[in-house]
UniProtKB/TrEMBL annotation:
This is Class I SAM-dependent methyltransferase. Residues 54-144 form the Methyltransferase type domain. The keyword Transferase applies. One of its GO terms (molecular function) is methyltransferase activity. It comes from the Bacteria. The lineage of its organism: Bacteria, Bacillati, Actinomycetota, Actinomycetes, Kitasatosporales. Keywords: Methyltransferase, Transferase. Pfam families: Methyltransf_12 (PF08242). It comes from Streptomyces nogalater. InterPro entries: Methyltransf_12 (IPR013217), SAM-dependent_MTases_sf (IPR029063). GO terms for biological process: methylation. The keyword Glycosyltransferase does not apply.
Length: 256
């Protein structure tokens, strides 16, 4: 994906390297990974088996690297070639599938599957279909975790303000009942807190630019985004802060 260099903001195009740089900047200023990893460790500790981890949309593999030592085998789906290069360095033991989730052909039974912050890039009408596809790769007794930002946090209020888009993983729960019997058992929603702190205005606007890169959504001028960042995120000391708490939908596949 490409970070636009004109007066419009939004990561578009095909330059995945720019996307990766923006993502890395966001994660460097956020406490998301540490808190999320602690949450994931609790989930792993409760699993009945740890034979296989499936990470769908693994990106550069930071979370994959954290989870992989707990499992005998790790399989990742990651369509971005620059991200796959990073993933190979970060988690060399992982088996990597280059096709998107809708095209991937896997013969696996995962004890834990992860779909972390991927649904923004999948049409809303295909969320249930995508979830069902992944649940087919989850072993009986296994778990799929679907992570998405809470629509009520400061970050997603900004996204809605500029794009009109709304993402709420809670809407998926009702659709899961229509999936074939034996695929979905108990579901539960957890909240995992997260906070981003930008060191200066330029960095925070770049991160806002990245977060506003919603496919097929209208773009905004840099001036408008900068004004929004100043108005809502300014700490009055040259730094900027916003919450981006996450929803985690835990979906268990029934044991036989």
């Amino acid at each position: 994906m490409e970070l636009r260099k004109d007066a419009q903001v939004g990561i578009t195009g095909t330059d995945d390297d720019a996307y990766r740089v923006a993502l890395d900047t966001f994660l460097a200023g956020s406490d998301e990974k540490g808190i999320t990893h602690a949450y994931l460790r609790q989930v792993v500790d409760r699993l009945p088996a740890r034979r296989l981890l499936l990470d769908v949309g693994a990106a550069q593999g930071t979370t994959t690297r954290y989870l992989a030592p707990y499992f005998e085998r790790t399989v990742c789906i990651e369509p971005s070639e620059p991200m796959r290069r990073e993933l190979a360095r970060t988690c060399p033991q992982a088996e990597v599938v280059a096709q998107p989730v809708g095209e991937a052909r896997l013969d696996v039974q995962a004890d834990l599957a992860l779909l972390s912050h991927v649904l923004y890039y999948i049409p809303r009408t295909r969320w249930a279909e995508t979830t069902a596809r992944i649940m087919e790769w989850v072993a009986p007794g296994g778990v799929l975790l679907v992570l998405l930002q809470s629509p009520d946090n400061a970050c997603m209020r900004m996204v809605h303000h500029f794009t009109g888009r709304h993402f709420d993983v809670r809407e998926l729960v009702g659709e899961l009942a229509a999936l074939r019997p034996g695929l979905v058992g108990h579901t539960e929603l957890d909240v995992v807190p997260a906070r981003y702190r930008g060191r200066n205005l330029e960095e925070t606007v770049m991160v806002a630019d990245f977060l506003l890169s919603v496919p097929d959504a209208p773009s905004a001028t840099r001036e408008a985004v900068e004004a929004y960042v100043r108005r809502h995120f300014d700490n009055d000391d040259g730094t900027y802060t916003f919450r981006h708490d996450q929803h985690v939908l835990r979906i268990e596949r029934p044991a036989p």
